[in-house]
Amino acid sequence: MVDEMNLKNNYEFFTHLLKINLKSLTSLRGAFLLQATFMIINNLVFFTMWWVFFKKFKSIKGWEITDLCALYGVVAFVFGVSVIFFGGVRSLAKMIDGGDLDVYLTQPKNTLFYASSSQSHASGWGDVVSGIILLWFSGYLTFGSLPLMLTVLFCSFVVFVCIGILFNSLAFWMGPMDSLARQFYDFVVTFSIYPQVIFSQFLKMILFTVIPGGFIGHLPVSLLREFSWSNLGFLVVGSAGFFILSVVVFNRGLKKYESGNRFIGVGTN
Amino acid sequence: MSYAVAVSNMTKDFVLKEPAKGFVGNLKSLISPKFNTFRAVDNISFKIERGERLAFIGPNGAGKSTSIKMMSGILHPTSGDISVLGLTPGKDRTQLGYKIGTVFGQRSQLWYHLPAGDTFDLLARVYDLNPKAYREKKNELVKLFEIKHLLDQPVRKLSLGQRMRCEVVASLLHGPEIVFLDEPTIGLDVTAKSIIRDLIKERSQRFGTTVFLTSHDTGDMERVCDRVIVINHGRVLFDDTIEKLRARYIKKKRVTLMTAEEDLHFEARGVNWLEKKPHKFILDVEVDKTPIDEVIATALKHARIRDLTVEDPQMEDVIKFIYRADKE
Amino acid sequence: MGKYLSFSIIAIKHGYKNKGETIARFAFYGIILLVFSSLWNAVGSEKIGLKPRDMIWYLAMTEWIVLSYPLIHTAIQEDIRTGNVAYLLTRPIPYIWVKFFEGMGTLLLRMLILAFAGFGFAYFITGGLPTNPLGLLLYFPVGIFASMVVTLYQSIIGLFSFWLQDATPIYWIFSKCNFILGGMMLPLDIYPEWLQKIAMLTPFSSFLYLPVKACLELDASLLLEALIKLTVWAVIGLIAMQLIYLRGVKKLNVNGG
Is residue A192 one of the residues assigned to a domain? Predict the structure, then answer.
């Protein structure tokens, strides 16, 4: 336990993982650029829908195009950072099902951390760039707003990564669900990029729990539009809550993994 | 002296859902599933001394991989005690992680698109190795395993044999006290197998590394290890040195004679003529009925011997014999 | 013809086993309809002359096609990656036609399942049927026809794998074009004039917008336009697919796969 807590060692481990991930990506340089570029185009194209929309409808319950721009920017940026640093999260279900966690279990580093940062996706860079572009155009990205911006982005990032961990951890109990897990991220993003003001109370509740789009997109932008300490507190507490929950659930699932009862006829050597 | 590994009454049961047949069966299984318990490892006990090289030999499904997974902390035993280097696998995972190395024949821990050297550098961070010590150890291992020329190629471009050498090096970088190898030579051609086996043995001898390997290839056992545990259906069928294995089960020798004469025949107890061709004769001799020197003396009396070969039965056959004996 | 259909049937059976994907699609369908119903109700789509109820049905109908069509390019890429393609090309049945019919099998299975989902979700969310309920009945065959043509173009995209390692970028472009120029989320009526004109010139508008609008509004002339355009694009697609395929086979044979 003490060894795991050794921050310096873990920091060096993490940065090295990032380096090696990046190296692995850029070793296929063409693919890297292509994927990143296409992600930028993808996000900007998506946003043109809103541009068309706002030409006809001036605002959505007080939210204007700049607010939507910020919303998209936040979600794109956070998504990008998540798949760059913790790109392994969305493959966790597959790793769990395929027994690929074994390697990490025999090495002296935290399994969840190691598995989550074992991959990085080139497209994430495109998301980060388009996110920054959109945030810039929204007008919310100013020097003065930087501390708040970074705080909300960080919280949103934590929630995004952790909900991925939570959902993928279901694979410990439910068996193969690789495609479902990958799609789940799409759901989360979908729910995150629409301003919450349009949703009913019931849906708002869902958006702060099961599919926490509220924490990922709406709340951060609300704070940028109009700061309030209570909202900030809510965001921070919520992020911390998701973090704790995801670690607890994953570790629980890991115990089940170690009991080996998932191996339906496979691990019988 | 403390043992490297002490296993007592290690048992592993898998609880499996009984597969359902037909639509109604499937529905039933959804609501109230039936479970079967499959005992993969059945009350195994053994001890391994430090520096010893032990092979776990058994056919597929014998419980080898399950055992090695329990010993390396990947799987929890259903019951029994396991102690590796004085630590409990699973419970003392991090502590143990620094001291053990693993090579799983069917899994890779090398990053696919990158040269093996990059994975090595990462592992140096995983195991918190001192940079200078790491570099020295790495160079030494690279030299020993002759992979220097492979280090700047992406792993995906390496042949299986080359990759396995890199995998073994990766598992040894942090100077583990014990190495667990699960089917390390699977899929390799004869030359590659031979190289890996010799390297593992040499490394173990030089540094006193305890080696635990599982295989269904008896060559691994013979070339690398001194002691073997034969396992089937989760139970130990034989646990002793290879010498004792030979002594106990090798009661036959095969003699091949090349003679000047076209024909040869003589009678002796326990001699079974397998092949009689002009100038070439193969016979099996049960050495407890007629000692081998007597058979050869008799043969010499009957013909001029141009060439003589005396062979032990294949270890494969010995092991198969042990499995079959167990069935009865 | 029979042997082609057998490929479709195999694909259907295979799809049946892949429940996870289907559930995911189901869930996404419901979510997107829910989100948009909230949106249209919040802004009041009556401003542009379309009732929120019809907007949801519009989305349900376009998504029915979009969520159903198979990603043939990934299947082809997998065949190329594993080298299976060399073996498959030697079969007497042209590889791409096999892939196309397999795709159709997958398509039809999905459309059947998602028809229930789309109808159910839309009915539940809007609390009723669209203004012209008969349009739904009409859309059933029309939508299937449109998605078959989309599947055809998906196969063509898949063919590009013969040249590129990864045809995914092309697929992305296609799907984005479908999204914008096909009027997937927002009917083309909302678009600025110049964009509408451009969209009408592309096949995408006839994949999604035209058939759906025609059925929703029971507009006979629009329906005719949709059907004619779809047929034209289908014919172009069939010819293009065969020609590109022949080119592609030549290239693979030259390069040894």
Answer: yes
A148 occurs within a structural domain: yes
CB-based contact A180 C42, cutoff 8 Å: no
> For every one of its 328 residues, what pLDDT tens digit does chain B have, with 9 covering 90 and above?
578 899 999 999 888 777 767 777 777 766 777 788 888 899 999 999 999 999 998 888 888 889 999 999 999 999 999 999 999 998 888 899 999 999 988 788 898 888 999 999 999 999 999 999 999 999 999 998 889 999 888 898 898 889 999 999 999 999 999 999 998 888 888 888 888 899 899 989 988 999 999 987 888 888 899 999 988 888 998 899 988 887 777 778 888 989 888 888 888 888 888 888 888 988 888 888 888 888 888 888 888 889 999 887 777 777 777 887 777 6
Q: Do A260 and B75 touch (CB under 8 A)?
A: yes
Q: Which of residues 176-215 of C touch A (CB under 8 A)?
A: 176, 179-180, 185-186, 190-192, 195
Q: Which of B29, B69, B167, B172 to mutate to test the interface with A (most CBs of A within 10 A)?
A: B69
Instruction: Dig out the tokens for C3 from the structure.
Output: 């042997």
* Cross-strand partners of B308: B257
CA–CA dist A133, A76 (Å, integer): 10
* Number of structural domains found in chain A: 1
Q: What are the chain A neighbours of C31 within 8 Å (beta carbons)?
A: 187, 190-191
The domain limits of chain C are 2-254
Q: What H or E segment, with its residue span, contains residue C199?
A: helix C193-201
| Host domain of residue A176 | 28-255
Q: Is residue A153 part of a domain?
A: yes
Which alpha helices (DSSP H) does chain A contain, by range? 2-5, 7-26, 29-56, 65-85, 92-98, 102-105, 111-116, 123-138, 146-169, 171-174, 178-192, 201-206, 213, 219-225, 229-259
Q: Is the dihedral of CA A28, A33, A39, A41 positive or negative?
A: negative
